Amino acid sequence: QRKGRTARHREGKVVILYCKDTHDEIYLRIALSKLKRMNTTLKNPEQLQEASFESDNLTSNKQHQTRLQQFFGSEEMLEDIMPVKISKLVPMKFGLRKSLVRENISYEITDSDLHIVIYNKVLIQILNPTEVDSSTFLSEIQELNQICSLLIVIFDFIDYTNSEKSRRLKKKIQELGKLHRLQFIPIDNEEELSFIVKSILENSR
């Protein structure tokens, strides 16, 4: 059980069952990563409120995933389109290419400024949160939003420590996304990007 107000001084137990060499391993790595961050947060209970935005993020992800099907045409139309196009600008550290190969998902590498394009409909852009120019950021995002059916902006926090500063920045990013009705998703590990891409592909079938 997760530690909470009623059992803050008594450790609980988490049991995770998974099947080796299946999609379960991806979920396992994501779960262990989130568990590690949760344990770090629980060492300072006063930070629990700051970390609560993660649950809002999961809810938002589920909501926009259920809307994905409306952005795709029939299966016949999708068959003639390359499922995934990955820009050379996308860092190898995400392991996305290897992940797609393991899943036998076709993709091509492009010389484009558009980072990840799925079925020529969904665009995923990956940004470093500290390198965003606040004076031009929203206008650039709105321009990208005009050229695709669905835009998802990933903020790469993989190399950042789980500090109060980074948590405040994540919360600020999500509030900005909600304000402008845009999909802003902070990620903390490499598997999360692969999970998002695969979820979109699965919803397109």
Task: Explain this structure.
Strands 2-1-3-4-5-6 form a six-stranded mixed beta sheet, with helices on both faces. The protein is built from eight helices and six strands; from the N terminus they run H-H-H-H-E-H-E-E-E-H-E-H-E-H. The longest helix is centred in the N-terminal third of the chain and has 19 residues, at 24-42. The protein is an alpha/beta fold. Mean pLDDT is 77; it is low at 50-55 and 62-74. The protein is 43% helix and 14% strand. The chain has a single domain (53-203), classed as Rossmann fold, CATH 3.40.50. The chain is globular. It comes from marine sediment metagenome. InterPro entries: P-loop_NTPase. This is Helicase C-terminal domain-containing protein.
In the sheet with the most strands, the strands line up as 2-1-3-4-5-6
- Strand composition percent: 5-15%
CATH class: Alpha Beta
Radius of gyration: 18 Å
Distance between the termini: 36 Å
The count of DSSP E runs of length 2 or more, i.e. the number of strands, is 6
CATH-derived architecture: 3-Layer(aba) Sandwich
**In which range does the helix fraction lie?**
40-55%
Characterize the overall form.
globular
- List the total number of helices: 8
CATH topology: Rossmann fold
How confident overall, as mean pLDDT?
A: 77
Main structural class: alpha/beta
**What kind of sheet is the major sheet?**
6 strands, mixed
Q: Indicate the low-confidence ranges by residue numbers.
A: 50-55, 62-74
SSE order: HHHHEHEEEHEHEH
Integer tally of domains: 1
Protein name: Helicase C-terminal domain-containing protein
Organism: marine sediment metagenome
InterPro entries: P-loop_NTPase (IPR027417)
